[in-house]
Amino acid sequence: MKDRLMKAAMDLMWQNSYGAASVDAICERAGAKKGSFYHFFRSKSQLAAAALEAEWNKKRAEMDRIFSPTVPPLERLDRYFEFVYDRLVDVRNRCGGAILGCPFVSVGSEVSTQDEVVREMIDRIMDRKLTYFISAIRDAAAQGVIETSNPAAKARALFSSYQGTVAQARIQNDVELLRDFKQVAKEILGVKRTEAVAAS
After folding, report:
1. Can you list the residues of the chain whose pLDDT is less than 70?
2. Could you tell me if residue 144 is left (phi over 0), alpha (psi between -120 and 50 degrees) or otherwise beta?
3. Residue ranges per domain, the chain?
4. Predicted model pTM
5. pLDDT at 187
6. Are 13 and 51 in contact (CB under 8 A)?
């Protein structure tokens, strides 16, 4: 029942909004009574934070595979962008044509000034996601594929640009905005400039 409540909360927050995911709606979706809800969770905030962390834990194995150190660093990023695009297309096809974007960004932007418990959880999750970008960009710099004196700052710039594009895809309900992001990433990282220098 605890897992069902977390899944129901995650689905409602992602497909609709945090505000729409009332305790009553979550219980109805999960097929649970309110007594069961309060047996496991003190509040909606606590349930939402637990659901978001559970969602991240499900995705972490996939992130570890995509960003494996055995994969060339820029290929790791390409694979991640392809994975997100394919996943959003799949979700669109299963959810009546809607582009849902990133659940962490969607919920985080909605509750950032309203719910500190949920905001802090999303902040931690986004930091974990960012570490994969930092690792790939640090390795790319070490291999001379890109030039940067601050891989962490470069990673944050790329990560923020990508998350913004994912949010824009949700707002415009257009997943095709993400199709060419691999090229945008190369421009942000300075890959074209580095390759031109190497060719000369």
Report:
1. 192-200
2. left
3. 56-199
4. 0.87
5. 92
6. yes
